[in-house]
What we know:
- The protein is mostly helical.
- It has helices spanning 2-38, 46-52, 67-76, 80-93, 99-111, 114-127, 132-145, 148-157.
- The chain is elongated and about 75 Å long.
- The relative contact order is 0.07.
Amino acid sequence: MKQKFKIFYLPLVFTIIFISFLSFRSSNAHFEILIDLKRSKKSLTYSQIEKMLNGYPNINQASLPIDVWRVQYLLNESKYDLAKSFVKSAAKVNPHVYVSEYLQGLIFYNEGKLDSAFYYSKKAFEGWPKNIQHYNSYVDVLEAKQDSSSLIKAYALLD
């Protein structure tokens, strides 16, 4: 009876060890990517971070989806079509931070599609107006569209 009891827990112990290992590797990757994102010139590429990230967990310490990092590196490499697919998956993971709308606006802005960039950057700014990146993105689109009245309204919302 005692032997069967130990054998029953053996798969559970191996599963816990495996998940702990994945979490440890992911935490190390998150640390390296965060350091690289703070640099003015990125030293990592999309293919390098793709190898580093194992998909567990799918959210970082700041409750942002991991796919946000993928999108940022893809934007640096001008791979907009692939970036769009990761934006959609990031929106499913955490739609409450409006980072997906912000990134979608950046993608369309870089592609020169100002109407779509306006829609998404405005949605991100109105969803989280205290985020300075959302504000800057929205203002960049408004400047490109030469929409001074919306620019004044956006400035009034920023504290």
